[in-house]
Amino acid sequence: MSAVTTRRVPSAAAGGASPGRPARSRRARVTVAVLFALPALLLLGALVAYPILYSVVRSFFDAGGHRFVGVDNYHELFTDSATQKALRNTAVWVLVVPALLTGVGLVLAVLTEKVRWATAFKVLIFMPMAISFLAAGITFRLVYDQDPHRGVLNAVAVGVHDTVTDSSAYPGARPSGAKALREDKGHGYRTVQDVRPGRSVTLGLVGIPAAKLPSRARPAMDPAAHHATPGTVDGVVYLDFVPGGGGRPGVVDPKESGLPGVKVELTRDGRTVAHTTTAPDGSFRFSGTAPGSYGVRLPAGNFAQPYGGVTWLGPGLITPAIMAAYLWIWTGFSMVLIGAGLAALPRDTLEAARMDGASEFQIFRKVTVPQLAPVLTVVFVTLVINVMKVFDLVYIIAPGPVQQDANVLALQMWLVSFGGGNNQGLGSAIGVVLLLLVMPAMAFNIRRFRRGRS
């Protein structure tokens, strides 16, 4: 009789697992995971998904949201001059700022490895990240102020200019009512009547505050009490004004002051034949003058307004000025992220390149940068996303008259919707376009993150 072998199946009472238990356990784990994720999902839906869907729907309605207009808002978006300007400025931001920030961050990250005080340097560069865009915008609005007494940059520009170039002695001065001078086609002021050698001229000016006269100024020389010398042309340039009132126009009165340091030119047939500078009493003299008729001219440089610096917040420089403020804030972010990637690089490749005789620049270009390519890409794409959403700095730094010259899509969306336009249909369309522009960069970043985890 053949032996029959039997196999005992452990019963549930004996401690074996029932067939349905793994499925129930898996469902329980899924349920617990959903319960834990539910608050975050609700919050994400309320703050992200719902606004996006509502904006998409709202973009197909009119300004008040009562009438369906189809794609009219999108048509207006791409034909409106202000929105086109915002699109062009946004494109400039995307093309310039992320690349510049990534390059500066890379250079600073590499350089900080060569200094002892690297930590202090990183803290100093990263510190602007702790400042809000509102505070940074107000700070740079003051930095770019046109008044050199308030704006730091213009204070430096005016200081350098005045160091290398002489400023005008009497800005804003003009001829007095005596009509001895007339305007000389942008070259200053010229005597109305020609002068012959042996004659004196009296050139009175007004528009100069007595308190701002040079300390070396003396009472004006009176040509009436002065005997002209043959073969010379002389005269006086003076302030034709008596403090406290009185005096006669065109006549040197006893209390009137000479104007020292005024440049005077002697002209003949429109050409300058001699030049001099007035003395403390305002007198001047041209000796050895040949017979003939001459003109006496006070060049425009004597009366030019003082150099006021650069118009940083003007239409031509407003966008680069705001970009500079953005670079100041975000350079620390770029440097720290690239520095973290640099610290994780294998040092053996760098040492091998040095042993092979490569210079530091060759190592940087052919070893460091290729190995940092993934980190540089992530930083660049992140900055592209942030640049597309720039709003605060442009709104705060750009003055009202030039705000349209610095306009970007995010600011245009706010201006159209809430900043006076009250057209939330068009504003929603701009928001949808902005989202579509950001999505490729976001998708690229997510794909790289997933590839790095796998």
Automatic annotation (TrEMBL):
Family listed: Belongs to the binding-protein-dependent transport system permease family.
The ABC transmembrane type-1 domain extends over 87-445
Extent of Low complexity compositional bias: 7-22
Q: In which compartments does the protein localize?
A: Cell membrane
PROSITE patterns noted in UniProt: ABC_TM1 (PS50928)
A Gene Ontology biological process noted in the UniProt record is: transmembrane transport
Q: In what way does this protein cross or attach to the membrane?
A: Multi-pass membrane protein
Residues of the region (Disordered) are 1-23
Signal peptide limits: none
Alphabetized UniProt keyword annotations: Cell membrane, Membrane, Transmembrane, Transmembrane helix, Transport
Any single Gene Ontology cellular-component annotation:
plasma membrane
User: Known SUPFAM superfamilies for this protein?
Assistant: Cna protein B-type domain, MetI-like
The residue ranges crossing the membrane are 30-53, 91-111, 123-144, 325-345, 372-398, 425-446
> Which named protein is this?
Alpha-glucoside transport system permease protein
